[in-house]
Write a structure and sequence with these properties.
Blueprint: E1 12-13, H1 31-34, E2 39-40, E3 46-56, E4 59-62, E5 67-70, E6 79-80, E7 86-95, E8 98-108, H2 113-125, E9 131-135, E10 138-141, E11 144-147, E12 150-159, H3 163-174, E13 179-186, E14 189-196, E15 199-204, E16 207-211, E17 218-224, E18 236-241, E19 244-249, E20 255-262, H4 263-274, H5 281-298, H6 327-335, E21 339-343, E22 353-354, H7 364-368, H8 393-398, H9 412-415, E23 416-422, H10 423-431, E24 440-448, E25 454-461, E26 465-469, H11 471-477, E27 486-491, E28 494-500, E29 508-509, H12 510-518, H13 523-530, E30 534-538
Length: about 550
């Protein structure tokens, strides 16, 4: 039984009178879906709402033994079909949401009242009408208050989709770091219509579905495969989900389906996709704690204009529903029940991890910008774990075989790698984004981070030279390289990239965690190795 999840409704059966709603106003029925309020199950586990798919014209659901429809959410009335196990959901009279993009020019802590007041005054003096937006969430459990909030000072709202260009202009003009904050000015509206046999239910904005039998899962038809979100995905499959599924309105007035699921069931579907289930138990336990911390830390900080707390893509954590669990990862989740990683100074760690650091982890600010995080400092991935800087990349690539991430079976291909591209192939790839460059003649690293990962790269052509920045941007531009920790040499008309690692290299090195576990290190030692100045805490 789930609590604190009652929504309102005024559902009408095709063959019956209106269903009574609960005490909540029908006009506020979407409020809880867009809020960052934490909700818990009767078992004391966080209840998380996760996107299944969006931008749909129709959603089909089924369950063995039948489906119960709850217009008011849990705790409200229940409607059952006379047509079997399947429901088809569409929308009528849909109206899209109104969203606008703000440029964030300063970010402060929620308790910094003087700083917030000064920031607002500063941007007023520059001729703007600044607004403050608080994101994140605050909750207390297990004797610990968790506060992931921050206050964003934002200026100059523009239409959705135009924020990036405006933010870049303002960053250049005022020499500040900027980002986009999306504000939901008006929620989408429409009537959700569910049909099964001769039973028809019409309800404003949202309908909830659960299996009649608590031991069964709900199956949602035609979910995009891969990252789980949009119609751009080429394949689809039917996927099963624990808990409840609700169908509501997407930004454009189409349908979006989401899963309200307890934390343990959600993690059981996530962790096997994040680390090999046959990894040593201690590595799986470290991954489970990291995934749990990441999950809770992101709530209220992502999907701010969406009717769910988390997306199901790599931007959040890839989630493909039930049926992907593995007994070994589930055991690791159960063994670490409720345990998260906290900073010694308070608050949850901003969890980051990658497949292989290649022997040296990286500073968070070198990869994504922003403020340096004391818990995410680059260091050698070995028993000494020294805070060092890679200054000779060629020498580093030739050695450092004592790293934890070099030790697991099958790790070598991610630990060290070589890629070769002809000048013609590389030119074709780069000229898609930079057509002015001409034929590429040289590639020169200009700035590197602590681990040797490239932050800025000069690509020299016979017509122009361009400088590119950003870890993922560089990797994709150059043909999908495993990392930016590389050196490049020219051999005639061929460019040879010799590199280390797989991924951004910040935080926990997953192959390194496996290597440490194989050497007998427990999960707390593994996490302390990759996240300094932290400790474990049992929240629930």
């Amino acid at each position: 039984m789930l609590r604190s999840l009652s929504l309102v409704a005024c559902a009408v059966l095709a063959t019956a009178g209106p269903v009574l709603a609960d005490e909540t106003s029908a006009s506020d029925k979407l409020r809880i879906l867009y809020s960052t309020r934490f909700t818990f199950t009767d078992d004391g586990l966080p209840l998380v709402t996760v996107q299944i798919m969006g931008n749909r014209k129709k959603v089909e659901l089924r369950a063995k033994g039948g489906v119960a429809v709850r217009p008011d959410g849990n705790g409200g009335s229940t409607i059952e079909s006379d047509g079997g196990e399947t429901w088809s959901v569409t929308v009528e009279n849909a109206k899209p949401a109104l969203i606008q993009d703000w440029t964030v020019v300063e970010t402060l802590g929620p308790d910094d009242a003087n700083g917030i007041t000064a920031a607002v005054a500063r941007w007023k003096d520059r001729g703007f009408d600044p607004h403050s937006f608080e994101i994140g969430t605050l909750f207390g459990t297990g004797g610990e208050v968790i506060d992931t909030r921050e206050v964003r000072i934002a200026i100059d709202p523009v239409a959705e989709g135009k924020g990036s260009a405006r933010a870049a202009e303002l960053a250049k003009k005022f020499a500040v770091k900027t980002q986009i904050h999306q504000e939901l000015v008006r929620r989408p509206a429409g009537t959700i219509v569910a049909r099964s046999g001769s039973t028809v239910i019409r309800n404003p904005s949202v309908l909830w579905f659960q299996p009649k039998k608590s031991t069964e899962t709900l199956t949602v038809a035609d979910v995009p495969t891969g990252t789980g979100g949009s119609q751009l995905e080429t394949g689809t499959e039917d996927r099963r989900y624990w808990g409840a599924v609700y169908v509501t309105l997407d930004h454009d007035g189409s349908l979006v389906a989401a899963n309200a699921v307890s934390e343990d069931k959600l993690l059981a579907g996530i962790v096997p996709a994040e680390m090999y289930p046959d990894a040593p138990a201690a590595a799986l336990e470290a991954q489970a704690i990291a995934a749990r911390t990441e999950l809770l830390q992101k709530i209220g900080r992502r999907s701010l204009t969406d009717p769910f707390l988390l997306c199901s893509t790599q931007q959040c954590q890839v989630y493909a529903g039930a049926g992907h669990e593995d007994p070994r990862t589930t055991k690791a989740i159960e063994k670490t029940h409720g345990i998260v990683l906290l900073r010694d100074g308070g608050g949850m760690v901003d969890i980051r991890y990658s497949a292989s650091c290649g022997g040296h982890t990286e500073d968070n600010d070198a990869i994504w910008g922003g403020e340096p995080d004391p818990s995410l400092r680059g260091r050698r991935d070995d028993a000494k774990a020294q805070l060092t800087r890679v200054t000779d990349v060629a020498d580093f690539l030739d050695h450092d075989g004592d790293a934890w991430c070099a030790k697991p079976k099958g790790a070598k291909a991610k630990f060290r790698w070589t890629e070769k591209f002809s000048s013609e192939d590389l030119t074709a790839r780069v000229s898609v984004e930079y057509p002015e460059i001409g034929r590429i003649t040289a590639i020169n690293p200009k700035q590197r981070g602590t681990s040797g990962r490239i932050q800025t790269l000069a690509i020299v052509g016979d017509k122009a030279t361009v400088e590119v920045s950003g870890d993922l941007h560089i990797r994709r531009l150059l043909g999908g390289l495993k990392s930016t920790l590389f050196e490049v040499k020219r051999d005639g008309s061929t460019f040879v990239f010799r590199g280390a690692g797989f991924g951004h290299g910040v935080g926990m090195c997953q192959l390194g965690a496996i290597g440490m576990a194989e050497a007998g290190r427990p999960h707390d030692v593994i996490l302390a190795h990759y996240y300094r100045g932290t400790h474990l805490h049992k929240l629930y």
